Amino acid sequence: MITVAIIAILASIAYPSYQRYVQDARRTDGQSGLMQAAQQLERCYTVQASYEDCDFTNASADGIYTISVERTASTFTLTATTAQPDRCNSDLTLNHQGVRSPSECW
User: What pTM does this model have?
Assistant: First the structure.
């Protein structure tokens, strides 16, 4: 009985830590997806001098995040959204100047 109680206490401590780890890993997937899409847009911009006709990957590597873009000829803002919990209160964004928001999620 004591062994079961000790295992229950350890599990109650370990499970929340595991959940945080999984959520942080999800957020990292979104961050890397944004960085990859930004690199693709920048490579295209160096050739065409415009972001408007550039293709990019619209999903993160693990498929957890969907990546969308708002762009003009000289600017872009990428947004990564997910329905899964990632310990971030809003969508991840990255713009053409490298500004990342929200800062507490990066």
Answer: 0.85
Is 21:4 a contact under the CB 8 Å cutoff? Answer: no
Neighbours of 101 (CB within 10 A): 15
Is residue 89 classed exposed, middle or buried when 0-12, 13-18 and 19+ CB atoms within 10 A define those classes? exposed
Query: Of 57, 17, 28, nearest to 41 (Cα)?
Result: 57
Q: Would you give the DSSP letter of residue 104?
A: G
How far apart (Å, rounded) are the C-alpha atoms in residues 99 and 27? Answer: 17
Q: What is the pLDDT of residues 49-105, one digit of tens each?
A: 999 999 999 999 999 999 999 999 999 999 999 999 988 989 999 999 999 999 999
| SS3 per residue for 56-88 | CCCECCCCCCEEEEEECCCCEEEEEECCCCCCC
Q: Which two tokens stand for residue 1?
A: 């009985």
Q: Would you mind telling me the total number of residues written for the chain in this entry?
A: 106
